[in-house]
Amino acid sequence: MLKQARITRNRSLTFKHILPLQKKLESLNTIPMSELTDIKIFYKNSIAIEIPHISTESFELVCEVARALIPWRKGPFKINGLEILSEWNSAIKYNLLEPHLDLKDKMIGDIGCNNGYYMFRMLAQNPKACVGFDPMPLCFLQYQFLQFFAKEVRLNFELLGIEELGFFTNSFDVMLCLGVLYHRKSPLDSIKLVYDALKKGGEVVFDSLILEGDGEIALCPKERYAKMPNVYFIPTLKTFTNWLESCGFKEVLHITTLKTTFDEQRKTQWSSKESLEDFLDSTGERTLEGYPAPRRAYLKARKI
Predict the structure, then answer these.
(1) Distance CA 276, CA 273 (A)
(2) Distance of alpha carbon 160 from alpha carbon 167, whole angstroms
């Protein structure tokens, strides 16, 4: 069943708009191996890859391939003098969560991993392995681009969605599920999939767009939220906590709730044409649809 799910998902790599990007990525194989020795990786705010022996001609090819893979939503990354300033400055979120993550020698699952930025950051804590899940082919190609140089054997990318987590029961010690739940038509079913994928005693960090207030309610946007057509439920913090507890989680910890800022989500030459500033009204307090501007709550929970 898992094999068939992988075959089905991998068909996205044959889409007409993806095939040219795959060929572009394959052009990196023309770089002489002698130029790809002594590569160093630094897992800081910007994942830095240093390739000391690469020629000017080869580096120009690297830059060309990176630009072909725009938009970059998560990052930032740096390859020699090339800075990939992604739409989201993901270092802000990871630095917030890192003190709450115990990863050494653990098996990690990252749901909605995008291009793997968080997985690369987690390597600084020496986990046993990190498995990322994301069904988007462009994210997979960006990850492959980075791995062409990094060759991190502790990382693995599954071109699968959260709905395929049922194949990974009792597999992970720690999981991240960031920026996923509000895109799911059944968030409780999704939370339960994460719960089942954790080992006993395992921990998870979720985030969600959040609705201010003390009620046990959730906002259901009529058509779009901040121009996103696939936002189904935005809970209050109490509702968010209730969701986790109703799915079996214990020791639910509210890490923090923060408003999304223009420092965290912004337009760059590596992003799409629109970003947060285009999704809000002139006050910055409401989305263009009239809903409260994006705020995110971060919850940590344990499977007992």
Answers:
(1) 11
(2) 10
